[in-house]
């Protein structure tokens, strides 16, 4: 039997970018649902996945994020068998399109062409057992398709009611600006969110991508907020991990992609970050993951942070970051300082020259933790 959750600890709700929809400030990522996602250890079956979703809902969570590629459709199917027994309007369901599902030899079964997008949304809706998704996201840029084709196809899906809002994931600064400009040029439905890897150990997107996000009113949804388990305190300086996902990465036995930190990430700055987080956690009576998640939750461009959970205990610990406490300004600055990435040219010059030139009425939207 699970422990009752005090109201003051349940999630808060924020608007998703410039849209009128509100989402819980912690989103449940469903990449661990199913049994074949990238060969990583710790995937959960349908029964365990449903238990995790149910507990997440007890915390007040309303925002589930999946993708067609997660476990080659099994993640969407697991969410679907849960969703069909729920009041649909209570939940915000997000999924993604772009990757090759690998189920046949069809060379067109990949990318962001109109053909692949329209086929993929229908397949996703069938697996999710719903007639619409709240947020449909391109999973990454596609060099093989003109962005106008992609955005018009997504706009059509909104117009026919299969999709409510359009989002992005995993893009560079120039790609995001081109998407924003193209949407405005053709009068298409605007992009409401950007799902991007973001954590104390992965802040490079602050240099440019998030500058575009902030100026365009696009919400940032961090994924891998604990850097694939690196920011949990399980790994100590000078000790190579041998177990779990981090052990697989260190041993090069799993695909080194997405949330998995490359072994080169295990450097002095990373362990300075971990030790700083640990010190704050001990002082505040919190876990290391809670402090790392809370740092993201207090960033003004972030309405919701995407977490993954393989057990109910792990979920409960992470959800305690959602509400009822805050990091102080001094603690935020301490974490900003220890994790700040080096500024290569021209960012060092541009940010330095504009440090005392911030004018909110002149479209200066620098994300302060990098610019300061």
UniProtKB/TrEMBL annotation:
Record's keyword annotation contains Oxidoreductase: yes
Stretches of the chain forming a coiled coil according to its record: none
Pfam family, one: Aldo_ket_red
Keywords carried by this UniProt record: Oxidoreductase
Keyword Oxidoreductase: yes
Domain of life: Eukaryota
Annotated ranges, domain NADP-dependent oxidoreductase: 26-339
Any GO molecular function: oxidoreductase activity
SUPFAM superfamilies in alphabetical order: NAD(P)-linked oxidoreductase
InterPro entries xref list: AKR, AKR_Detox_Biosynth, NAD(P)_OxRdtase_dom_sf, NADP_OxRdtase_dom
One GO CC annotation: cytosol
Family that this chain belongs to: Belongs to the aldo/keto reductase family. Aldo/keto reductase 2 subfamily.
PANTHER family: NAD(P)-LINKED OXIDOREDUCTASE SUPERFAMILY PROTEIN, NADH-SPECIFIC METHYLGLYOXAL REDUCTASE-RELATED
Protein known as: NADP-dependent oxidoreductase domain-containing protein
């Amino acid at each position: 039997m699970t422990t009752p959750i005090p109201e003051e600890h349940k999630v808060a709700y924020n608007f998703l970018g410039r849209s009128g929809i509100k989402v819980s400030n912690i989103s449940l990522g469903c990449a661990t649902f199913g049994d074949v996602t990238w060969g990583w250890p710790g995937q959960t079956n349908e029964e365990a996945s449903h238990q995790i979703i149910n507990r997440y809902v007890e915390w007040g969570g309303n925002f589930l994020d999946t993708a067609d590629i997660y476990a080659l459709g099994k993640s969407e199917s697991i969410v679907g068998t849960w969703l069909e027994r729920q009041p649909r309007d209570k939940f915000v369901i997000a999924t993604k399109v772009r990757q090759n599902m690998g189920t046949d030899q069809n060379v067109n079964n990949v990318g962001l062409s109109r053909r692949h997008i329209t086929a993929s949304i229908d397949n996703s809706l069938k697996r999710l057992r719903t007639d619409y998704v709240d947020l449909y996201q391109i999973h990454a840029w596609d060099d093989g398709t003109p962005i106008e084709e992609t955005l018009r196809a997504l706009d059509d899906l909104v117009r026919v009611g299969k999709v409510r809002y359009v989002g992005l994931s995993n893009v560079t600064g120039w790609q995001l600006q081109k998407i924003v400009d193209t949407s405005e040029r053709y009068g298409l439905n605007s992009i409401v969110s950007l799902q991007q890897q973001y954590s104390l150990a992965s802040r490079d997107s602050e240099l440019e991508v998030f500058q575009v996000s902030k100026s365009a009113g696009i919400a940032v949804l961090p994924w891998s907020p604990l850097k694939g388990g690196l920011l949990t305190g399980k790994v100590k300086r000078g000790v190579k991990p041998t177990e779990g996902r981090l052990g697989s990465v260190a041993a090069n036995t799993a695909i080194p992609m997405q949330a998995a930190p490359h072994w080169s990430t295990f450097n002095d700055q990373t362990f300075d970050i971990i030790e700083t987080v640990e010190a704050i956690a001990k002082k505040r009576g919190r876990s290391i993951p809670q402090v790392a998640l809370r740092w993201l939750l207090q960033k003004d461009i972030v309405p919701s942070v995407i977490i993954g959970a393989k057990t109910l205990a792990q979920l409960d610990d992470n959800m305690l970051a959602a509400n009822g406490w805050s990091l102080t300004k001094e603690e935020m600055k301490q974490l900003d300082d220890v994790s700040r990435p080096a500024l290569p040219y021209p960012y060092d010059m541009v940010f330095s020259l504009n440090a005392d030139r911030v004018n909110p009425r002149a479209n200066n939207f620098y994300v302060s933790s990098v610019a300061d």
